[in-house]
Amino acid sequence: MAAREHPAPVKVADRPLTRDARLVLLGCGGYIGSHLLDTLLVDPSVRVDGWDPRPDKIRHWLDAPNFKLRRAMLNEPSGLDDLHECVEAADAVINLAAICNPAEYNTDPITVIRSNFLDSYKVVEICAEAGKWLIHFSTSEVYGRTLASYVSPGDYDCDAALYELDEDETPFLMGPLSSQRWTYACAKQLLERYIYAHHAQLGMPYTIVRPLNFFGPRMDFIPGQDGEGTPRVLACFMKALLHGEPMRLVDGGSARRTIVSIRDAIRAIVLMLEKPQSAANQAFNVGNRDNEVTMAELADLMRKIYARITGDDSFLKHPIESVSARDFYGPGYEDCDRRMPRLDKARDLLGWTPSVSLEETLLETMTYYHDHYAVSRRQAG
Ligand SMILES: NC(=O)c1ccc[n+]([C@@H]2O[C@H](COP(=O)([O-])OP(=O)(O)OC[C@H]3O[C@@H](n4cnc5c(N)ncnc54)[C@H](O)[C@@H]3O)[C@@H](O)[C@H]2O)c1
Fold this sequence. Notes:
Blueprint: E1 21-26, H1 31-40, E2 46-51, E3 67-70, H2 77-89, E4 92-95, H3 102-105, H4 109-118, H5 121-130, E5 133-137, E6 164-165, H6 183-202, E7 206-211, E8 214-215, H7 233-243, E9 247-250, E10 256-258, E11 260-261, H8 262-274, H9 276-279, E12 282-286, E13 292-294, H10 295-310, E14 320-323, H11 325-329, E15 340-341, H12 344-350, H13 358-380
Parallel strand pairs: 1-2, 1-4, 2-3, 4-5, 5-7, 6-15, 7-12, 8-11, 9-14
Antiparallel strand pairs: 10-13
Helix pairs in contact: 1-8, 4-6, 5-6, 7-10, 10-13
The structure holds nicotinamide-adenine-dinucleotide.
């Protein structure tokens, strides 16, 4: 495709795309995709063409007349043919497809880079060719380390500019080559740059979403019950509580994260679809500044909430142990100390602010895990 110098930018729709719309949803069978389908498909005037080889979390939609799932990987040539046609017919394309598990960033970096860049760059080209709006799920990991991690700890709290993440100003700071933890962040960052380049040179409309820890039902899997390997922190701590194992804190659990309810997060995405003119050609952090915790605090809070859900006070003293990052993730892992998103853009352009507290988010999420896994385990046993 020949690059043009100053193309007329492609215009996005000037009407909400949550009615009478046709959407392509890549990676629709995963955690976020399943919640997005639950919101979009209730309106029969919205038609979704989905791609995902794994239908487990969206079985309740498989027979819906306004949904068609291709059980295919994006990197399969046959899947791509059909994708061209669907993108041509779509009002917008949402790309969620990725491998996004921290335990794999340094243990299977080749697959992580392939999945997060090589399997998706074609989607960008197809959208640019068809002149379609691409809403791409990136990650807050693209920011890498915070500036604060380069200064003395005393400076940390006194200057918010050292740790606040601004979508348009904050530099992307990655570790050295041997720290393979950054494979995911670098692949996501290159794809963001590829998207931006297609906007700048070819006028393709885009929105980049940078999620910060969406917590809710259906996130990941419980190892030994419906998957194998090491899931993200929520499911790791849940597995420990469900299976009577110690909750393992990597390097003492001092890393801080902000956590946003999947309900708030889906509302942000729906607002993007409702206001294409405001959402197009922007990157948005989607997180919750009020819900910041260290991983040690998160483990303790989860013990307390699980005691409440089960009515069993012994969970208040559920064992917690510290493990080195090397022992937990293997060599080449390092963590980002803190991520505090600026959310002004989402508020000003979309009218979005998150409202669900950390405690409420955990209560809803952990109740789901308890009902889904503890009860089914008891029934199976
Ligand atoms: N959940 C979060 O808090 C979070 C945080 C940061 C970034 N993200 C990003 O949001 C997106 C969705 O995350 P999620 O939590 O729903 O992850 P998920 O793993 O639950 O879902 C991803 C889905 O993509 C599918 N997939 C992977 N490669 C594919 C391919 N080549 N073709 C077709 N389907 C493919 C998988 O089968 C899976 O169902 C990802 O891009 C992820 O990097 C999520």
